[in-house]
Amino acid sequence: MKLTWLGHAGFRLEIEGAVILIDPWLTGNPVFPTDRREEAVRGATHILLTHGHGDHTGDAVALAKELGATVVGIADLIGYWGEAEGLDGIGFNRGGTVDLNGARVTMVNASHSSSLMVDGKPVYAGHESGYMIRGEGRTIYVSGDTDIMADMEWMAELHRPEIGILCAGGYYTMDMERAAWAAKRYFDFKTVIPCHYDTFPALKQDPEAMRRALPGVEVLTPKVMETVEL
């Protein structure tokens, strides 16, 4: 499988028969190279969203219409876009599992908040969430925006993810130290990839803090638009 960081919390994941854009915020993202947009989104089959905030969903509607990709996420948000935008979507809820071209995606809990801005006002966008993505013999945990949760204990025991994509920017989510503590306390990751950091000054973080806290774990910090094979 191949994973490409799109900056902030966005990723392109090529797994099984799917090309999944996870929280793709491209327009207005200060660290995304706009001249590489076509490369980032080419061939996408699905757009997987963790919650409604604009730095995760800002390009979702436009990309879905442009690419014919299916939007996937919590039922409230996908249902809203189905009515308001006529989007083809898969709306489900925590504990549910869907098949995305052979990749098995289970929605799990997160601890954050979730809303959409509509006519300048925040509106309810369903619950924030994370995902366990199973494919090609491995499981990836995408934390979404969250802090440490006791739920991580059972999530790790049940799903046993080898790879963790963890928010780690602080201020709005857990930071590098807290994300590393959660990884050590609850999970048995072989590989961890931090995200949602260094996008703007409030999220300035040093990933070396995570490396120091997780001896024996491969902490990958790819550059924006760098692809790694997992």
TrEMBL record:
One Pfam entry name: Lactamase_B_3
Taxonomic superkingdom: Bacteria
Keyword Hydrolase: yes
Record InterPro entries: Metallo-B-lactamas (IPR001279), RibonucZ/Hydroxyglut_hydro (IPR036866), UPF0173 (IPR022877), UPF0173_UPF0282_UlaG_hydrolase (IPR050114)
MF terms (GO), sorted A to Z: hydrolase activity
Alphabetical UniProt keywords: Hydrolase
Residues annotated as domain Metallo-beta-lactamase: 7-196
Keyword Hydrolase: yes
Family under the similarity heading: Belongs to the UPF0173 family.
The protein, known as: UPF0173 metal-dependent hydrolase ACFFII_04735
Species of origin: Paracoccus niistensis
